Amino acid sequence: AELRAKFKRLTWNKVVAFQTRNPMHRAHQELTFRAAKNVEANLLIHPVVGMTKPGDIDHFTRVKCYEELLKQFPERTTSLSLLPLAMRMGGPREALWHAIIRKNFGCSHLIVGRDHAGPGDDSNGKPFYGAYEAQELLVKYEDEIGIKMVAFEMMLYSSDRAEYVPASEVKDGENILNISGTELRRRLQQGLDIPSWFSYPKVVKILQKSHPPRDKQGFTIFFTGLSGSGKSTIANALMVNLMEMIERPISLLDGDVVRKNLSSELGFSREHRNLNVLRIGYVASEITKNGGIAICAPIAPYLQTRNQVRADIEPLGGFLEVHVATSVDVCEQRDRKG
Fold this sequence. Notes:
The protein is an alpha/beta fold. The chain folds into 2 domains: about 1-210, HUPs (Rossmann fold, 3-Layer(aba) Sandwich), CATH 3.40.50; about 215-335, P-loop containing nucleotide triphosphate hydrolases (Rossmann fold, 3-Layer(aba) Sandwich). The chain has 12 helices and 12 strands. It has helices at about 1-10, 25-40, 60-70, 90-105, 135-145, 180-190, 200-210, 230-245, 255-260, 270-290, 305-315, 330-335, and strands at about 15-20, 40-45, 80, 110, 150, 155-160, 165, 175, 220-225, 250-255, 295, 320-325. Helix 2 links the parallel strand 1 and strand 2 (about 40-45). Helix 3 packs antiparallel against helix 7 (about 200-210). About 30% of the residues are buried.
């Protein structure tokens, strides 16, 4: 109701919506502006900010990017509104659902591209849905649901023309530049240049702040081994050395200390051991996410649990697992706990 009222107040009689779950760059600006111009409508950037695909950039960062990109559109032509919706990655039927949602928000058109809401490939490496099935389904039902589909082509940057052009208008031999999502993530991770023809510098700055290069990311060093193997001794020595070498917050999560302060109610069954290690892993992930260094020294005997900790931390920063392989005989000689 609020968005409909806003459109009425602005006298926007036709509104084309653009759904996205990714940051927007120059190519997105060009295609959305062209789509709105082609149907003589205003533009609503309507990103989903619920649960999306694993590995997607968080919506807090994306919203900052959208707000910055909004400044690049002509005044009073474009609006931004957030949609609290979880992506189902359901392909054509989800595209139809997205269209109905935009109709309810007061839009007259929805931009639909290649493989809209597609889940990718199946276990055999084949796409779940055809590239243009979503577009075909929306065209079939657009009169019934009361919202039109606007198909869009991929926009490519021509260095010869110094502008973005639709893929169908690229001439033979024309010099085309492109940066894929994988390449963008690599450049962010390694602190490499992201050219201004690809994205606006202020948008790039937001992404770089949220996704710093490897040498600026936090990391976890995860020692594991038998009781008495020397994990805590090595971990303490490493902490002292790192504190002398670098200026970053460093936290030591020793197994015995964590048990006393965080897991005092747990016993030593397999279930409780795993829970204790997962708690340590969670704390380490938060330290890593915020650019700190976590040094962990628990008894973590189960590979599955260690792999889960690794999986939780690696998307946020570095992770190094170290097995302190002291023999059982030596560990027994050092045992003071009985």
